[in-house]
Amino acid sequence: MRFVKTYWLEMLMVLPLFAYIIGFTLLPILSNLKESFVDQRFGRRYDILASKRADITYDIAHAPDNEEQRAYEKELAETTRALERLQHSPYAGVSLSNYHKLFTDRSFVKAMFNTLAITLLGLSLQFVVAMSIALVLSQPFRGKGFFRTIVLTPLGIPTIVSATIMTYIFDTSGYLNEVLSRLGLLGEVPIDWAQGGWLSIGMVVFADTWKVLPLMVLLFIAGLEAIPHSVHEASQIDGSPPIYKFFTVTLPLMKPYITMALILRAIDAFRIFELPLILAGTATTPLISTFTYSEYARQNYNLSAASGTILMGIILIFVFTYLYIVARDRETNA
Amino acid sequence: MPKKLLQPLPLYLSLAVVSLIILYPIFLMVKISASYPADIMKPHKDLLWGPAGITLEHWRNVFTSGLLVPSLFKSLLVATLVMLLAILIAAPAAYVIARLGSPFKYLCIIALFLSRTFPEVAIALPVSVVFLHWDLLDTSFGLILAHLIKVLPYVGWILIGTFEAIPLSLEEASSVDGASKIRTLRKVIFPLSLPGVAVAAMLVWLESWNEFTYALYLTVSDNTLPLQTYYYLNRGGIFNSAAYATIITLPVIVLTFILQRYITSGMLAGGVK
After folding, report:
1. By residue range, what is the domain housing residue A53?
2. 20 to 30 A from A327, CA-CA: which of A187, A228, B218, B241?
């Protein structure tokens, strides 16, 4: 009780935030997990019967006369019986059928492959390009401020806007094909970038890189600036060539920044949603996230829940790897 | 050494290429929103501006279609209320967490970080099913609740940093002078944290303004601006989508311009998207 008396204000201040996160993030995630183990056929019929029962209950309350009310009540009893029958049906209860269905679905297997490919390719490209730009921006040259401003321009561009713009570029009669044909690189038939496979993966990777490059550059610049000046001077006196210096001095010292940037990017790359949905569509180039949405749109809620749960599992593995690395580095530093 | 490392000609050539790749798509958006259809729809496109020149026809269409104002209003309303509510919920909690001892503080920060990493498609499904029963689909209130899911961990994360930067000695001095806890909060902590809170508020406003996934799951017909853009994209309305994309971008450019000098890498880490 003394604890409550002393700290009532603090508890009152923390409560809303954690109540909200528990109610609106943790509970939905758990309910998603639960629904993923409910057979799709059962889930669908259950939803239909449950909403039918709700409708009839509403009708009973608003029935104009007793006769109609009795008819509704008869219907209600039938629906309730059907629900009970459903609950005793062979496919009611905990089942792995959704997961089985997903891993035998070619579209979902493709989605897993696409998601992994986009994450790996995107991260490598973004790492190399952002690191190069950050290194250039850490050197003095004329027009540096101007170039920095240009690089940071897409920082605030909303994802929906970058997706919109990229559709103009990657359209079959879009601007990239136009540039390619002017350069003489395009054959008779224009390239259909949304046809699926590596072309679509490359398209999404490019669009994603365009959007997140400023953030990566800023993170790497912060990492470069954190390297003490004396280290640069020491290696300069040593006379080691710049490339050697980059791999032996700069890169190891920037490791915490690089791990943070890459893990955080990986988490976001795994759940990338708007760009593949808008640019490539779910038919030719499904990703786990867009597959989850398209099953939701088809009202296959349980299948969508299973697919979302798999995505969450992949992300959690990465998050815990990151937390493990952070904790380990703390111990070695302490 | 730097002079030897960066040869002027290759350096400026590669800078020019990178700049072109970054800037050209934005130019394209503005160009399409203000070009004559004859210039845009022809098989061989002009990479700069078409010969027909500039037209405001599409902009006039967008403003007179009657679809812009409702979605603009919904987007503005949701973003502003999300901003106010997020600060109201997260700021007090962030202050307490910032003053906690080491293991608890670390745990709280990890909990916030974890709840931000969950995929939206996994949260949005149960939320949309529940909101259907609560009659919250298509409402601004429902969307505000959903956006708070997304922004609360993020804004909490940023504000913990803000409050950590305020020295504890100031509070101690205030309580030695006989001020109550609440008075110290109001007269010492609140004014000192105001700049950080303002930056966090702007970032939250932007997140909600740009948000797409929850809006897609929770909307049937009352679109926000990003959804309206998506609607035109699906129907092949290239001029409308370009105009809408430009409209969404305008406040973003203004706010990021203001924010640029205040953003620290810690915030970026929380906001990497």
Report:
1. 2-96
2. A228
